[in-house]
Write a structure and sequence with these properties.
alpha/beta, 3 domains
């Protein structure tokens, strides 16, 4: 390629492009004179322009599309913008906006990002991975699109999830974006509307299942080990039917984790640590009721049980403190059709269908929603929790916002201001009887980017549940007394970058302590981890 082409192409390489921020010397040296306006601007001027243009977009989805195109034009400016105000921009690049973006992905798709590994490539997945232009991939977020958030089977349109997740790896914890790769496994879709949509960009076939599916997944996992040997795989938004078996199959074989199971569990436990600082209790002092009995619920319950064991409670007794509710009602020892991972939480009890009646019978002090059933924590349920507990802990963790089991206002009002509340989706601050309440967002974004930075820095060979407990402890320790005074049990979202790096340091220490690192232990782990943090500032 001749020099002219090289200079012009520089402006179309998002990783290298600085637009109007190229200096006069750079413009002369790189042959950019005349290709951009002569005014040399600093990044703050560029950010001001982006903010003005973004404000002109009428809807959250329009803003999502605009930010996606900015990422395609100027990657560093994109991350400068995200880190300038995480509380404002994270809901636009991930939940709740990403849900609508995935539903309409085939209609709003611009420049493709990541890799699409379809069933047509079975037997040749290594070749597909080698088409990626970066050899040293350290993180893959992969989904098959079957259970996108609470929205169901979106097929390849679920690609917005890996893209958004990895953007937050970088924006929140400074994992270098050049080492990340979003992957969509296209194994078909059972979404009839998509199969009939002429703009659906994936395979037009029903999903494969059973042995054929397992073989395809296994080929993918093994191909990653060969092509990207230092890579960690994050399984994302797989259905309950496959999520737990996938994690069980590979967690002791390769470096991998499932954020829906382990990340959700970690952020929930961090919230419980925060709530217990208000209550003056430990995790072993509670009874837990999970509305939802899938992989997310069981993942949270498992990690809670591990913590209760650390607090001195026998394992079988810890399990008896956790109850599940599925679509048929309270899960009991007589409930049929349970998966193996649900059985430890199936206790002797009479069958009950109604959630409020279940609350009255089980008498939980902590109610966790992972059902994706909106408004299922109705007034009757919240009032029952408040009647049983002086300070009920209520965590409607389903997202996007449209799937939340209740709003912050409902939980606070119906409990007469006594609920300790956190949710999966963001809710604004509110006043109740002259008191300020700042709802915490129990978002996995507090956890998985930090785990990612720790794994990236240490080149960990495995990801363990102990790392997620350490992450929860570290995150909860950063909540101040001032935060707790307004019922905020997570660090403010505005501080998420510093919070994530701090969590990563503690997780990295554990990785070295457990002999899981593939690099030598440094004299100062905190300095070592911070030296790996990506800066979006122009070089």
């Amino acid at each position: 390629m001749d020099g002219k082409h090289t200079s012009f192409d520089l402006l179309y390489n998002p990783r290298l492009n600085k637009g109007t921020a190229f200096s006069e010397e750079e413009r002369k040296r790189l042959g950019l004179i005349g290709l951009i306006p002569d005014g040399v601007e600093d990044s703050e001027t560029q950010l001001q322009r982006q903010r003005i243009q973004l404000e002109q977009k009428p809807t959250a989805l329009d803003k999502y599309v605009y930010l996606s195109e900015l990422q395609d034009r100027n990657e560093r400016l994109y991350y400068q913008l995200l880190t300038s105000d995480p509380a404002e921009f994270m809901p636009l690049v991930y939940t709740p906006t990403v849900g609508e973006a995935c539903q309409k992905f085939g209609h709003i798709m611009r420049r493709p990002k990541g890799l699409y590994v379809s069933l047509k490539r079975k037997g040749h997945i290594k070749d597909v991975l080698r088409n990626w232009p970066v050899e040293d991939v350290r993180f893959i977020v992969v989904t098959d699109g079957e259970r996108i958030l609470g929205l169901g089977d979106l097929g390849v349109c679920g690609m917005g999830i890996p893209i958004g997740k990895l953007a937050l790896y970088t924006a929140c914890a400074g994992v270098p974006p050049e080492h990340t790769l979003p992957v969509m496994l296209d194994v078909g879709t059972n979404n009839e509307a998509f199969l009939e949509d002429p703009l659906y960009p994936g395979l037009r076939m029903k999903r494969i299942e059973g042995a054929a599916y397992d073989e395809f997944l296994d080929e993918f996992v093994q191909a990653v080990q060969e092509v990207f040997p230092r890579c960690c795989i994050q399984f994302e938004d797989f259905t309950n039917r496959t999520a737990m078996p996938l994690l069980a199959r590979y967690r002791d074989q390769v470096c991998c984790f499932n954020d829906d199971i382990q990340g959700t569990a970690s952020v929930a436990v961090a919230g419980l640590f925060g709530a217990n600082r208000i209550l003056g209790k430990q995790l072993r002092d509670h009874t837990y009721l999970f509305f939802g009995a899938g992989s997310a619920a069981v993942g949270i319950a498992d990690l809670i049980c591990q913590q209760m064991v650390r607090e001195g409670m026998p394992s079988d007794q810890a399990h008896r403190h956790c109850w599940l509710v599925n679509s048929r009602g309270l899960v009991t020892a007589d409930t049929t059709g349970l998966s193996e991972f649900q059985l430890p939480f199936a206790h002797p009890h009479s069958a009950i269908k109604d959630l409020a009646e279940i609350v009255e019978a089980v008498k939980p002090s902590v109610l966790v929603g992972v059902s994706t059933i909106p408004h299922s924590f109705n007034r009757k349920v919240i009032e029952a929790m408040a009647r049983i507990n002086e300070r009920p802990v209520i965590f409607p963790y389903s997202n996007p916002t449209s799937k939340s089991e209740c709003t912050a206002h409902e939980a606070i009002e119906w409990s007469q201001g006594r609920a300790i509340f956190a949710s999966g989706s963001p809710f604004p601050p509110l006043h109740y009887k002259d008191r300020l309440f700042v709802p915490g967002q129990g978002n996995n974004v507090y956890i998985y980017p930090a785990i990612g930075l720790a794994v990236f820095a240490t080149e960990a060979s495995r990801v363990t549940d102990e790392m997620f407990l350490k992450a929860a402890e570290s995150l909860a320790a950063q909540v101040t007394d001032q935060d707790l005074a307004v019922n905020l049990i997570y660090p403010p979202m505005a501080n998420i970058h510093d919070a994530s790096v701090e969590v990563a340091v503690h997780v990295a220490e554990l990785i070295f302590d457990r002999g899981l690192a593939r690099v030598p232990r440094p004299a100062n782990i905190a300095e070592f981890v911070r030296s790996k943090v990506y800066s979006p500032e122009y070089c």
